[in-house]
Design goal:
42% helix
């Protein structure tokens, strides 16, 4: 609390007490009106629900009808306030802990089949020799043809230590596996290592903020320092957040004890809390860069924002998502839960980075961004300007080019996946992941593989043309310009053969990742990506040129 607000608090408290005494009757009536309004609307809702279930022409499925109503009610508030029925409790546990009992594999549907899309490293599926691309035929004697992936997933999951019998098919040959389920823990830190030739710049990828995030980052950081790291990159790209306390723990690795990290403020005083670092840091001096992008949200923004406000790290990348809201889970009847937004959070400079104002909606019902005139400038510890209402703006911006549209078309039809599956069958090894390259021979094979496959994609030019066509029809000019429009559509239509050559570098990037993952799984995928990552390269460059300290001191223009 500021000195100014403290000095004024006594006067305002006295005025408030006097006003409350004078208006005591009014307060009672207001509370009564509120309770009456709640009671009245609950009675209306109950009566409406009963009448629908009795008289509606078709079967209403009461449970589904109620959940639809609840979901619609909550969606009018914000997308983070959610009802979690008992049937979804396992998914909720996975989100908060990263743990579940199972065989350790992602699955997906391909046509009528369900296939393994990626086994997790060192878990039962991988250890049993199950590969990405293998079809799952049976689970515990039950054929899975026609089942949805979530149904197959439930069959594969179960108590750790129990056995599940899985039959897979590869190239027409079936294999039976007796897999002992394990407690699968998706690591918060899937990869750590060095990203420069001198092995001075350590790199930690943090994917989530479950209950083990802080301890995993501490362990990774300590190991890198023990191996000689004198600079560190913390990668929060694509990290949608998680537990607030773990965000505080991670900030505490880099800043001294008793430093403010984040405050939460809600409608009721119960949610007005202050979170400070509780212990001595692991290293308060090591030069630090934090990588962020548009999908870095919530706890990721607390970490990057607090380290920016405290001038402890240079933030590199793109503007973050802008989620400054805090959720709390409340237990409901019948083993269900309510996840409800209870507060906004404010990082050390005093700013709240929430971008969307869910109390204000546009004509289509979408929440609008905080208005420009409401944006306030704050100061970091060293006096650098930062703003609220816009997520975390990086100190050093890196704009990664958008992948060519053809990549999306190939990806949508699973052609990268299918080619990598075939490649794995005919190549026993590819060597270290970081040194694997898509050679001319491999790329020609890929082009031959996809040339007779069906895949669609539209360029932005075609999308704009279709919008123009719709407008010409609406204004009744289409028949007059139909021939010209057809000629333009022909000229703008992408030539797949040409684009497979023109956008080879974009296509190679995805293809290389998919092939490497077949042999080296998640760790290999990360190693392969880092070698060409523009964000990582920019951070290493900042360290090499000694630019981090001047940026944090506000000396670099």
């Amino acid at each position: 609390m500021s000195t100014r607000s403290t000095n004024r608090s006594g006067k305002w408290r006295n005025l408030a007490i006097g006003a409350a005494i004078a208006a005591g009757g009014a307060l009672t009536v207001a509370a009564g009106d509120s309770y009456f309004e709640i009671s009245k609307n609950l009675e209306i809702f109950t009566d409406l629900y009963k009448e629908l279930n009795i008289y509606y022409v078709d079967d209403t499925q009461p449970g589904k009808l109620m959940k639809t109503g609840v979901d619609a009610m909550l969606s009018s508030l914000d997308p983070y306030t959610q009802y979690i029925p008992e049937s979804d409790m396992e998914d909720y546990r996975f989100q908060t802990t990263g743990q579940y009992g199972g065989i350790g594999a992602l699955i997906k549907r391909k046509g009528d089949a369900v296939v393994v899309s990626e086994p997790y490293e060192n878990y039962p599926a991988m250890k049993a020799g199950i590969w990405a691309g293998d079809e799952i035929v049976e689970v515990d004697g039950r054929k899975v043809t026609g089942l949805a992936t979530d149904e197959v997933s439930k069959l594969l999951k179960g108590q750790s230590g129990t056995v599940v019998k899985v039959v897979t098919r590869r190239e027409g040959a079936t294999t039976a596996h007796a897999l002992t389920r394990e407690e699968i823990k998706i690591p918060d830190v899937p990869y750590k290592g060095f990203v420069d030739d001198q092995r001075k710049v350590g790199y930690i990828k943090l994917n989530s903020f479950t209950q083990t995030a802080g301890s995993e980052v501490r362990k990774a950081m300590k190991e890198l320092k023990d191996e000689g790291a004198s600079h560190l990159i913390l990668d929060l790209r694509g990290n949608g957040g998680g537990l607030l306390r773990e965000a505080v723990n991670i900030v505490n690795l880099f800043v001294p004890k008793n430093q403010l990290v984040v405050e939460t403020r809600g409608r009721i005083s119960e949610w007005d809390k202050t979170y400070k670092t509780l212990s001595d840091p692991l290293d308060a001096e090591i030069p630090l860069a934090v990588l962020v992008d548009g999908q870095s949200a919530s706890a990721s923004e607390i970490v990057s924002g607090a380290l920016q406000d405290l001038d402890r790290a240079v933030v590199v990348g793109e503007r973050t998502f802008g989620k400054g809201l805090v959720q709390q889970t409340k237990d409901l009847l019948y083993n269900s839960k309510l996840k409800v937004t209870v507060a906004k959070y404010y990082i050390p400079s005093g700013r709240c980075i929430q971008k969307l104002d869910y109390a204000q909606r546009d004509s289509s019902g979408k929440a609008v961004e905080v208005k420009e005139e409401a944006i306030t400038t704050f100061k970091t510890r060293n006096g650098r300007p930062v703003v609220d209402g816009r997520g975390i703006l990086p100190d050093v911006e890196v704009m990664e080019h958008e992948l060519a549209k053809i990549v999306g078309g190939l990806y949508e039809e699973d052609l990268f996946f299918d080619f990598a599956t075939r490649y794995r069958l005919s190549h026993a090894d590819i060597g270290p992941p970081e040194s694997f390259v898509v050679t001319d021979e491999i790329y020609r094979s890929f082009v031959d593989f996809v040339k007779d496959k069906h895949f669609d994609y539209d360029t932005e030019s075609i999308e704009a043309l279709e919008a123009l066509v719709a407008k010409t029809k609406q204004e009744r000019y289409f028949e007059h310009a139909e021939d010209e429009i057809a000629a333009l559509r022909k000229e703008l239509a992408p030539d797949r053969s040409e684009e497979l050559v023109r956008f080879r570098s974009d296509i190679e990037e995805v293809l290389r990742s998919e092939i490497v993952a077949r042999y080296h799984f998640q760790t290999g995928r990360a190693k392969a990506a880092i070698s060409t990552d523009p964000y990582v390269k920019r951070a290493v460059e900042l360290f090499a040129k000694g630019e981090v300290a001047p940026i944090l001191a506000g000396q670099r223009k």
